[in-house]
Design goal:
Elements (H helix, E strand, L loop, with lengths): L1 H44 L2 E7 L2 E13 L6 H6 L1 E17 L1 E6 L4 E8 L5 E3 L4 E3 L5 E4 L3 E3 L4 E8 L11 E3 L12 E5 L6 E6 L2 H23 L9 E10 L9 E15 L1 H10 L10 E5 L5 E6 L7 E15 L12 H9 L4 E7 L14 E5 L2
Parallel strand pairs: 1-20, 2-3
Antiparallel strand pairs: 1-19, 2-18, 3-15, 4-13, 5-10, 5-12, 6-9, 7-8, 8-10, 11-12, 14-15, 16-18, 17-18
C-alpha cells in the first residue's frame, strides 16, 4: 500500500514536469511561425513601383521611298517597301506683263508740264534736252524726245537748265531757239507753271524679274493642276520643267513695265500620302530600335520632294526624299541600382538621368526604403 502511494506520487510529479516543457515549446514554435509569416509577408508585399516620365528630344529622320508603277506592283516586297503610284503630265504656256517698281525721286531743279504747239504743215521732232526759252531769258530743257504732229500739239515734261528758286515760274510762253527763226512763231511751247518737287522714276532689278518669273510659274502650275483635275495636289508631288522662257526686261533699265513669256512641262505623281508616311516611319534607323527607346512621330512634320527617274530597269516612276520629326527618349534604368535606397534618394538619382523628366516612387506604408531584391522593383513609364 505504501509502495503504491509512492508510485502514484512519482507519476504525478513526472506529469507536472513534462506539461510546462511542452507549453514552452508550443509558444516558441508559435512565435517563430508568426515571425516566419511576417518575413514572408514582408518580402511578398514589400514591392516598389517606380513611375518614370521620359524627357523627349526632338530629332529629324531622313527617308527615301521608291515609287513603282502600279502595273508592276505584284510582289509582297513591293507592296510593303515601295510606294505604288502613277504619273500624269501636261504642258502649259502664258505671257504676262508686270509693272516695274516706281521710285519717287526728289528734284533739285524746277520742272513742270509744257504743251508744245505745232502750227506748221509738217511734223516736228524734238530730242531730249531741246532748249525752251522764256521771254525774260530763263532756260529750260525737255526731258524726253517727242514728235509734234503737224497742226497739232503734245504734252511733255521740261526742267530748268540750272538749280535755283528763280526758275520757279508761273504761266508763260516759250520759244524754241534751236529751230529755224522762221518757224519759232509757228512752233512754240506754253506752261501753267514750274515748281521744285519730285518725279517718279521706274526701275527694274534682277530680283524683280526673278520674282515675276516665279509668280508666272506658280500660275501655270495651278492651270496645269486644273487641266489634269488635280487641284488638291501639293507642290511636293509635282515636278516642273521650263521649256521656253523669254522677257523684254533688262536689269537696271527704267522701263515702266515688262513682259515675260513662259512655257513649262508639269508632271504630277499620284500616290497615297498616308502610305508614304507609313513606309517612311517603319524604316527607322537602328539607333532607335532598342527596348529602352521611346519614339513619338509627328505626323504633320513630313517634308519631301519628288525626283522623277528618266530610265530604269525596275519600273520605278520616281523617288521621294524627305524627312520628318520624331521625339526620342532612351531611358536606361537598372532596378538593381535602386535596391535599398530611400524614396527621395531614388527619385533624385533617377531625375539626374538626361532622358528622365520626372520620377515618382510608390512604397508600402510601412517601408521607407526600396526592396533589397531587384525583382521586387517594377518600372512603369508614363507619357
Amino acid at each position: 500500500m505504501v509502495r503504491q502511494n509512492i508510485s502514484a506520487v512519482k507519476a504525478r510529479g513526472s506529469r507536472n514536469f513534462i506539461t510546462p516543457t511542452y507549453n514552452y515549446l508550443i509558444i516558441v514554435f508559435a512565435i517563430l511561425a508568426v515571425i516566419l509569416i511576417g518575413v514572408i509577408l514582408y518580402f511578398s508585399l514589400s514591392q516598389a513601383i517606380v513611375y518614370i516620365t521620359p524627357e523627349y528630344r526632338e530629332q529629324k529622320v531622313g527617308f527615301a521611298v521608291q515609287v513603282i508603277d502600279k502595273e508592276f506592283a505584284n510582289t509582297k516586297e513591293v507592296m510593303t517597301s515601295k510606294l505604288i503610284g502613277e504619273i500624269k503630265e501636261t504642258t502649259v504656256e502664258k505671257s504676262k506683263t508686270f509693272e516695274a517698281k516706281a521710285i519717287e525721286v526728289p528734284q533739285t531743279k524746277a520742272s513742270g508740264q509744257v504743251t508744245i504747239i505745232n502750227n506748221y504743215s509738217k511734223n516736228q521732232p524734238l530730242i531730249t534736252a531741246t532748249r525752251l526759252l522764256t521771254p525774260d531769258g530763263k532756260l529750260y530743257r525737255l526731258t524726253q524726245t517727242v514728235n509734234v504732229p503737224a497742226g497739232g500739239r503734245i504734252t511733255a515734261t521740261a526742267e530748268a537748265d540750272q538749280e535755283g528758286s528763280q526758275f520757279i515760274i508761273g504761266q508763260t510762253k516759250f520759244t524754241i531757239p534751236g529751230l529755224w527763226e522762221g518757224l519759232q512763231d509757228k512752233i512754240y511751247a506754253e506752261t501753267q507753271g514750274f515748281a521744285v518737287g519730285s518725279i517718279v522714276k521706274h526701275e527694274i532689278s534682277q530680283s524683280a524679274i526673278d520674282q515675276a518669273k516665279e509668280e508666272l510659274r506658280q500660275e501655270l502650275i495651278e492651270e496645269a493642276k486644273a487641266e489634269l483635275g488635280l487641284q488638291n495636289l501639293s507642290e511636293q508631288e509635282i515636278v516642273t520643267e521650263i521649256i521656253k522662257y523669254s522677257t523684254d526686261a533688262k536689269a537696271g533699265s527704267d522701263q515702266k513695265e515688262f513682259t515675260i513669256n513662259l512655257s513649262i512641262g508639269v508632271k504630277a505623281l499620284i500616290f497615297d500620302q498616308e502610305k508614304l508616311k507609313e513606309i517612311a516611319s517603319s524604316d527607322l534607323p537602328e539607333i532607335y530600335q532598342t527596348n529602352n527607346s521611346f519614339i513619338e512621330i509627328n505626323p504633320d512634320s513630313f517634308e519631301y520632294e519628288t525626283i522623277l527617274l528618266d530610265e530604269n530597269s525596275e519600273h520605278l516612276l520616281a523617288q521621294i526624299k524627305g524627312e520628318y520629326q520624331v521625339k526620342v527618349a532612351d531611358v536606361q534604368v537598372d532596378p538593381a541600382q535602386l535596391t535599398k535606397m530611400e524614396k527621395q534618394e531614388a527619385v533624385k538619382y533617377l531625375e539626374n538621368f538626361g532622358d528622365i523628366k520626372k520620377a515618382e516612387v510608390m512604397l508600402p506604408f510601412w517601408s521607407k526604403n526600396l526592396p533589397a531584391l531587384a525583382d521586387k522593383i517594377t518600372i512603369q513609364f508614363e507619357d
